[in-house]
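Re: [help] complex structure
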Amino acid sequence: MLDDKYHADRAVGTMQDSKITAKNVQVFYGDTHAIKDVNVEIADKTVTAFIGPSGCGKSTFLRCLNRMNDTIDICRVEGDILIDDEDIYDPRVDPVQLRAKVGMVFQKPNPFPKSIYDNVAYGPKIHGLAKTKADLDEIVESSLRKAALWNEAKDRLHQPGTGMSGGQQQRLCIARAIATAPEILLMDEPCSALDPIATAQVEELIDELRQSFSVVIVTHSMQQAARVSQKTAFFHLGNLVEFDDTDKIFTNPQDPRTESYISGRIG
Amino acid sequence: MTLETADITPPATPSGKGKSLLTQDARTKKRNAAEIRFKAYGIAALAFSILFLAMLLFAIVRNGVPAFTQTFVTIEVELPADVLDKNGNRDIDDIKKVSTFGYNPLIQDALVAATADIETEVADGDLKKMLSSSAGATVRNAVIANPDLIGQTVEFELLASSRVDGYMKGRVVREDLARDRNLDAAHLDIVDALSQTGGVTRKFNWDFILGADASESRPEQAGMGVAMLGSVFMMLVVLLLSLPIGVAASIYLEEFAPQNWITDLIEVNISNLAAVPSIVFGILGLAVFIQFAHLPQSAPLVGGLTLTLMTLPTIVISTRASLKAVPPSIRSAALGVGASEMQTVFHHVLPLAMPGILTGTIIGLAQALGETAPLLLIGMVGYIASNYPDGIASGFLDPNSAMPAQIFEWAKRADPAYYERAWGGIIILLVFLMTMNIIAIILRRRFERRW
Amino acid sequence: MPAIWIIAVILVIATVGYFLARGRALASAGSDPRKMHSLPVYYGTNAAIAAAGPALLVLLAWLIAQPLLINNSLTQYLPADIIGDAGETSLAMADVNRIAGGLDLVVAQGAMTVEAAKNLSVETTDVRAELAAVGVALGADVDAATLALAQRYRGATAFGNILKAVAVIGLSVLGAGAAYAMTNKDFRARRYVESAVKMLLITAASVAVLTTVGIVLSLVFNTIEFFRAFPASDFFFGTRWEPSFSGRGGNSDLGFLPLIWGTLFISIIALIVAVPVGLFAAIYLSEYASPRVRSFAKPMVELLAGVPTIVYGLFALLTVGPLLLSAFGANGSFHLGWMSGGTAAMTAGLVMGFMLIPFVSSLSDDIINSVPQSMRDGSLGLGATHSETVRQVILPAALPGIVGAILLAASRAIGETMIVVMGAGAAASLSMNPFDAMTTVTAKIVSQLTGDGEFNSPETLVAFALGMTLFVITLALNIVALYIVRKYREQYE
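Output below.
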């Protein structure tokens, strides 16, 4: 099915195939209208960055993409969000299965108070991805390798994940998310709690992840968006103001609000 | 998409790849079933707790409410002058010379007259079993209070005996009386007949709330009033001691104490004291206040002192929490305008923390009010609280009971009529506790601040 | 001079001192408060504290120490056969004190002149009747020796009282004078006042420590006394608990094992009820319940915690016991005959379990809530169901705290008194049957210490040994539990 679509898009020769499609998405927190009529298409195997001043709704929108907003009682989502052409807010969709497909990495590194191994193995275990212990070992190793953490972690797999440095913890969380074999990775300001060196490592990692996943990253740092993303969406006051290639957004924004933000006049 | 990226195989196992989200796979179904089961356990646990609460309340209300009404027998008692005042000069001392035994025949006559129309096999002399043995005293007291009654026929509402009362409340049935020396089934026929004509009635029983305890054989007369006063005096002691000491200790620990091992010791001490079993405080009270200091046994003062020691840790813990909740900015502001540390605390921090402190104190008091175990050891159980204290000093120092101790005492007595009293006593106790808690909640709501 | 008058005099001196010192301070600054180190009120307060504080402390110490000292010095004059026996001595001295107090009362009420009271003799006056007239009841007629001791006591007390009044009032004047002398505009009065207040605060804080010391001392001394009269090995390893009060010691079996067996048996039944129910209720309330359900159910469960234990005791005795008996008794609905009376380990254990539910659930609720939200997000974000998140992430993270909560609940169960006194029965037994009557350490403390307050037979003193073991066990549980909970809290702060 994926392949068909791939060929179809290629045949038409337009953009890369669209992984996530949002149509007329509205989000309400109680009476607050947090996201206003957002339409966006997010491509597979690219890094898409959401930028905008704090409180603009970029994180809220990100959390709609794997229905993490379900855990907040007063939050209500309207409109359609399609992943692989399936409406993820369809009543038949189980958020558990959705979240296995759409992994998430959070602002603050949040390793579980378990060993490094158990942190990574947690997802595969609950989703039943490994039949044997050897399978599990292999998943853990490959996930840690992909998260560029294997060399640092291989000798301390059974020590608590909370004992690592901040940057390592965040890469552990990325490894943990990769281990469930998602197709999309959502990252909510993954570097905001990290020092510059750790940030550089994670950014490098994100660039590599692009080869396997569709990555959506929320960031408050325009430099970071410019460094890691191919596409950038600018949110302002709940509106998606502009969505285009990253180069274009940063060099030739169409909307005056985008330009103000880029040049530092609003923020 | 470039060729380079196309070559990369998906990570881990590709089993989840490309699957539709719209259908649940078998594993997800199983996991969701487990989810529902888990949630059901939670609901069951919660329902179980609430069910138990409902059962408890039901038992209390069902068994306790009857204690608030009491059966009375209305009879016309003739008070002949030749028996009650032989000299005929209405001298109060002469009247007092006639003991309650002198009144009993009059009551018996009145009962015979009242049951004249009723056919019964009960001997005249046994009719008085229907009444409480306090009946003679009731009539005598009325005569002494008003000697003019002598020579008249006066209508009296006299307490029925506990068996009759139990029969009226459905607690006692005829079969129970087969082996009972205190009442026969035949008496109940009279009661039935009298209640038809309004001679036997159930009325609200203020004496249960305000009256004194009675001896083991007269449950119909027993009341909570004296024990209630005992509790009140105890709570006064607790309040007057634990509030100032608790607040002073908290202020020291929270605002002034240096970080050293002594402070640590005090803190560990307080949190441990809060978890020491209450019976141990009873032993402490017994050893220190009675064995060592020779304070009077069963006195509310001793009870209050013991409960103070027990309540202090609770009050210190909640007071420290309220002091902690006052933001440091208030302290900085006061210190910044040149107030000393002491002035900052007493003028600015303490007033802001006061609602929280009072709430904690009331809750601590409520806890102390319901506490029984320590009171057992300092002699507040087993004492029959039949005399009201005659003044403030006597209230603190004379032997008394307390509400929970009185309930325990009633529960221990052999006559099942006392069980009804015990449940009723619990209703009174819970009303007190609820009132205190409501006051605490209102205080908290009213003065709740958000910084 | 009675203590109340001495206090009044001290207060007068303090008041006078207050105004004098305040005036002097103002005068030294030319009535301009701005030139003074402290506010005028502090100079006055300083003098008042100097006048009243030390004097009142000495007065208090004197009031406590004087009777003890006099009693001690008089004990040696008691007949030799009495002195050997601690119990007899204290009885005899109590008589002496009572007669002395009674005579004072007689004089105070004007029934006798001071002289007459001093020259009283048992031959000419019925002292017992005289005292009874003022409301002091004596157990026996007064003999000459006791009366002589009582007179000595009165003499010593009178002398001591005069000395006390002079010393205390003198100290007060001295304090006020010293403070007055020090007062001038540069005197740092506020510092002195504040350090006095601070002393007061420290005293209050040390009440907690004193309480613990008091508990330990009262337990230790009486326990040592007990082990003098009763062999420790028989207490700790005895399997029979049969105190006899008629024999006045000697024939009693005071074995600790059946009591601790009953205590643990009942506590374990209680925990088996309370831990799963409380824990699941907490999980449901903190993880699943909507705010509306939570706002209704949480106070409901906590209501159970505010119910006094006497209520649970009565519920066990009058409701749960008969109910269990009607199910498991010989004539019960299942004809099992397991239970022979309403009071049983099961009755007490069940009700105690109900009592502990809110305790376990509110502690666990706090602990579960203190697991950071990011843990939940992390797990849910990986596609875990809510129950998987709870079981595999939240509970393991909260485990130390929950273990602490369970230990605290266990300590509560072991120390609970009213429910077992009313619900568990009185017979000490080492039975395995949960439907048998059992008794506990706390229940036996109550039954050995209620009644007459004579502290000299092993049957009474054993209660202190029981109290000691109870205190040690619960203290150990509490310390471990509080340590675990504290460490746990620090982890997430």
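The first helix of chain A runs from residue 2 to 12.
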